[in-house]
Specification:
Layout: E1 2-5, E2 11-15, E3 18-21, E4 24-27, H1 32-37, E5 46-53, E6 57-63, E7 70-76, E8 78-85, E9 96-102, E10 108-111, E11 115-121, E12 125-132, E13 141-143, H2 164-167, H3 172-178
Antiparallel strand pairs: 1-2, 2-10, 3-4, 5-12, 6-11, 6-13, 7-10, 7-12, 8-9, 8-11
Length: about 180
């Protein structure tokens, strides 16, 4: 497994070893000892799986008092996955990192707790998986407008399909003005 440090503090790109032949492939998607050696030692408490169609964009989401660390991957299709550093005291505050996760590359992205996260589907359909270090707390969830100019994420889809919640997500300026982070 190859672990690559990204420009965003606490975000790692993980390239697991994939064994493949004419029958298909096998990949180890998580092993406690190996991932601890890579610096991912928080316990996982919840796994999530979402299925989405081309152009669906989910995010940018975070939890305020119960931030989740996430190990994310794709088992079918492809997504452009994004981590945004919204921690004002972080050396990489305001930066984002994006990478295409696909069923072919089997890459994973680790986001330590405290980051905003989102993804956009770039294939006809995608199955997206999250291993989380804290439970989903709907009353604690925050969202940032997906195309907020402060972060200027370069999404691959210009007119994404958004949930009602993501369509009306506040900008970073609104969140900081309201002190709701």
């Amino acid at each position: 497994m190859e672990v690559i440090t990204t420009p965003v503090k606490g975000v790692l790109l993980i390239k697991p070893k994939v064994w493949g032949d004419a029958r298909g492939y096998f990949v180890e998607t998580w092993q406690k000892k190996r991932y601890e050696e890579a610096g991912i030692s928080l316990p996982f408490v919840q796994d999530n799986h979402s299925k989405s169609s081309y152009g669906v964009l989910r995010g940018l989401h975070f939890q305020k008092k119960h931030p989740q660390g996430k190990l994310v991957s794709v088992s079918l299709g492809s997504v452009f996955d994004v981590a945004v550093d919204i921690r004002p005291d972080s050396p990489s505050f305001g930066k984002w990192f994006g990478v295409e996760l696909t069923q072919e590359n089997q890459w994973q992205l680790w986001l330590e707790p405290g980051l905003a996260h989102g993804f956009c589907v770039t294939s006809e359909t995608a199955h997206f998986h999250y291993k989380c270090t804290d439970y989903y707390a709907p009353d604690d969830e925050g969202s940032i407008l997906w195309n907020d100019p402060f972060f200027a994420v370069e999404w691959p889809v210009k007119n994404p399909l958004l949930s009602a919640k993501d369509k009306v997500a506040p900008s970073w300026a609104e969140l900081t003005k309201q002190n709701t982070i």
